[in-house]
Amino acid sequence: MRYFSTRGGGDTLSFEEAVLTGLAPNGGLYIPERIPQLPANWRSEWKSYTFQELSVAVLSLFISSEEISQAELKSLVEKSYSTFRHPDVTPLKQLGSATYILELFHGPTYAFKDVALQLLGNLFEFFLLRRNAQKGQGAKPEQLTVVGATSGDTGSAAIYGLRNKANISIFILHPKGRVSPIQEAQMTTVTDANVHNIAVKGTFDDCQDIVKALFADKVFNDAYRLGAVNSINWARILAQTVYYFLAYFHIHSQLTETTDFEIQYVVPTGNFGDILAGYYAKQMGLPMGKLVVATNANDILARFWKSGRYEKIDSTAIVDASDPTTPANGASDGKQTSGGVKETYSPAMDILVSSNFERLLWYLANESAEGSNEKDRRQHACAMVDDWMRKVKQDGRMEVPPAVLAAARRDFVAEKVTDDLTLKTIKSYFEGTPSYIADPHTAIGLAAAQIVAPENSANTRQIILSTAHPAKFSEAVSRALEQSAQFNFERDVLPEEFRALSSKEKRIIDVERPEVELVKRVIMQHMDIKNTTPLQEKGSSI
Ligand SMILES: *Cc1c(COP(=O)(O)O)cnc(C)c1O
């Protein structure tokens, strides 16, 4: 299987090259040449597979065995999911006659990103070890320096994915004192030698600007082989397809009735990675109804499905600039920050544009692409995507033709959920039977599920993907349940592991001012290269 960029150009890449490259040089995202179809006997063959066995079965459809053998893939998968606390890895829980929760937060950092990042870290290590083993004696080994910025919720998943991995160092910047104590402790108590937490005196935007500047600095980037583990990496999408299958089999094995029903997966969405994995599962042949895109007040996706316009700022909202009490964009929830992103109770979904959406756009474009053969149509689709993304970059908006919107509506519905409804939903599920404490991201999925639930639910089963443990987002959960006398955060939500974090050793590097040069110096010192040493020449590219 080969991969190409959604914006075309260049040669196709192997799985290894696509994973190590991340973002294509022309700004595009890598997608497989074709979406493999499920083997004819998948239902009978896979039905009692464990998460790990399903993972090998699904992943090997996208990875040539010459690149990673079945035995190697099996060992990578087993290593990756041995860090999960639940034997099912992603267990399915029933909440109502037609409502299920797919819990994706049983990994080391209690959030769904672990599912992908545990595997990604092992893939990086596997590829680098193999490349270095093939080099002659005395040759300089290939190394990777992963750099990223976090506002708290997602940095720890990257750190846990890469801790203690050979040939890889990770530097994660966070705004000092501006991440929650639990999230800070989750990151800074990882004391492996290759993990570096940098606390920058500044804001999250400062951290992000520094990281962008580091990547843009070609000399520095080449010398240290900067790498990112952001959500556009193809391996992350692929790893996430597996739980759609697991949930499908789980729900079918539980049911004794013979009535036919349709599964509706509901996915709290930010960068469109989690739900895109569901789209791939669907295209491979996994039976399901429309996928439900659930967004918070940062609703660029919900607006797209309503209008066909993909625009950073809602152009239809009436903003009265003279009235400071009128929130921009008609937002009744979420503080508007300077960058236009609204701060909500579900911060891991606070985005302006949705990076993985470009991959879906490519498939939609391909349906209406013209050309007498597949290659020409593919090129035409790439050209359309390139044009759309150029418009988004230049004008902050673009609009797709009606046929493309119709294609999008065939496989998806989208709903926006306000902060207010998020809190109400947490409360109502806590008070329900069985009582369930949802984190605010999961609550957005639960609320959207209710909005789109068909009147006659006898033929539908809803599976809501739960993306975080409620203890990770204590502020929203506590606020939602503050009136509930029976609720006690410490007793009902806080896991033992979180309690233990506060007494663990921490390692933090303080950077006194939000300046690129200061962060550069930290990276150089820790990579054991003295400031005075001229930057090394570029190695073979990854
Ligand atoms: C990242 C994240 C999401 C959004 O996932 P996408 O793949 O970006 O759509 C939702 N919830 C939590 C808790 C997350 O960390």
UniProtKB/TrEMBL annotation:
PTM sites of type N6-(pyridoxal phosphate)lysine: K113
Tryptophan synthase beta chain-like PALP domain: residues covered: 91-325
Lineage summary: Eukaryota, Fungi, Dikarya, Basidiomycota, Agaricomycotina
Protein's recorded name: threonine synthase
Keywords for the protein's UniProt record, in alphabetical order: Amino-acid biosynthesis, Lyase, Pyridoxal phosphate, Threonine biosynthesis
Main EC class the enzyme belongs to: lyase
Pathway(s) where this gene product acts: Amino-acid biosynthesis; L-threonine biosynthesis; L-threonine from L-aspartate: step 5/5
Threonine synthase N-terminal domain boundaries: 2-81
Stretches the record annotates as Disordered: 321-340
Record-stated family: Belongs to the threonine synthase family.
InterPro entries: Ser/Thr_deHydtase_PyrdxlP-BS (IPR000634), Thr_synth_N (IPR029144), Thr_synth_N_sf (IPR037158), Thr_synthase-like (IPR004450), Threonine_Synthase (IPR051166), TrpB-like_PALP (IPR001926), TrpB-like_PALP_sf (IPR036052)
Cofactors (names): pyridoxal 5'-phosphate
Domain of life of the native organism: Eukaryota
One GO process term, biological-process aspect: threonine biosynthetic process
Extent of Polar residues compositional bias: 323-339
Enzyme Commission numbers on file: 4.2.3.1
One Gene Ontology term of the molecular function aspect: threonine synthase activity
Keyword Lyase (UniProt): yes
